[in-house]
Amino acid sequence: MSIRLRALAAAAAALATLVGVQIAHAADDPPHAAYQEMHADCTVNHMLSDDPIVFPGQAGASHNHTFIGNPATNASSTPQSLVGGATSCEDSLDASGYWFPTLFQDGVALTPDKPVVYYKSGVKDYRTVQPFPAGFKLLVGDARNMDPAAFAGNWKCPGYTGATFPASCPDGSSLVVRLQAPSCWDGVHLDSADHKSYMAYPVKGVCPADHPVPLPMLETKIPYPMHNGNTAGLTLASGPAYTFHYDFMNGWDPARQAYLVDYCIHGGRQCNGYGVDPKKP
Question: Structure pTM?
Fold first, then answer.
């Protein structure tokens, strides 16, 4: 074989190898999906100065919280006590407790309209997301935060997005707060002294080595209707707008949650609060 033919053969072999590698990588990549999520669509059912994660068993020890999900959630609640209970969420098998600091306006507690807790994929390969384990608890955000720049979420109404309350909102609009949770678990702990360190945020769509297990990425969407657009006198029970935080105590029926994670998140769907994606059944 001539030198030229040998060179062509080597180039062809190299190209075949490259194509094979590309095909292998393509097979490892998740198929494109515009959404990979499920919703907890719940209504407010009570307000209490309780926090069963930060102040377990200490009724009245916390600042005031607004609760959605399991109506029995109080200072003495545990994940085990919530499972199988009642719920204000559309999915009757989600008896989880969700709570966040109550928003006041001139001293009057405001009730949000149709809060949503999204369960999304925080990692590129959404097929690897695992359900929350039984007994899981999580605190997202910091009630003691005094730096607006350190707030990881935002408050938003038409024409405004920021860490503080806006001067006003358009008449008839709602002021919405959003905050995403870390979604990478260490695979061992269900809680910790700070209620946070066993979780971490993904880095470029991948969980870090010390928190290797991807769980659903929670994100709150809590809308407060603003009458006449008036935002004067707003304050959280925890303090300024950038002290917003929320807690989650897993009360899901395990089989139901596992099904929804597989069907909605792994399946690349946008499921509503009943676990249905009308556009991709």
Answer: 0.88
